[in-house]
Amino acid sequence: MKIDILTIFPELFGSFLDNGIVYRAREKRLLEVELHNIRDYTTDKHHQVDDYPFGGGAGMVMKPEPLHAAITTVSKKEDIPVVYFTPQGRLLNQNIVNRYKGKQRLILLCGHYKEIDQRIRDTLVTDEISIGDYVLSGGEVPAMVMIDAVARLIDGVIGDIESALTDSHQQGLLGVPHYTRPSEFRGMKVPDVLVSGNHAEIDKWREKRALELTRERRPDLYYGRN
After folding, report:
1. Which of 13, 39, 40, 197 is the most buried (most CB within 10 A)?
2. Residue 224: its pLDDT value, please?
3. What's domain 2-151's architecture?
């Protein structure tokens, strides 16, 4: 899988790409990430990527010319998904991650300032995504979230893919509580069923706890799963 990132701050991705799961995916050549500085696609001597909004108001808007040049040059005008991160986008969830995991190529567009010119959104952006109901200074952090979420699901990145497939949200429910040794810590014991060796009963316990936790903490997921 190849992911192209369009940003005016490519240096923000250095540590992220060189550590953890994403680094492992790149080392195994299961994921290729290429950074593109949007300023490189400007034509003026100041490399200006923003301008005042028509109609007035606070804030600046990213100009259409460099964005259009960057997207069309990187995509080579092929049919590649272009994801733009914006508070106006649909909320990122595991279903979206699962769908993009199967793509061979993906372009992530990181905006800044007030927004990007709407004409780019209307003609070149294929999906708009938000990672929450709050505003960040740019799309770089959401892009990192998306890359990490996708990378860990690529076959061969995680040693035991079953671990990823049983995480919260993968099956539409929250994950269950987990315990490790020692079996008793400061007077608190691991639930008996988990040390019983009875895998059928363990599965039942986990299913019950997943349902209980989801109903308690995320009723929207619990009542909307069907």
Report:
1. 13
2. 83
3. 3-Layer(aba) Sandwich (3.40)
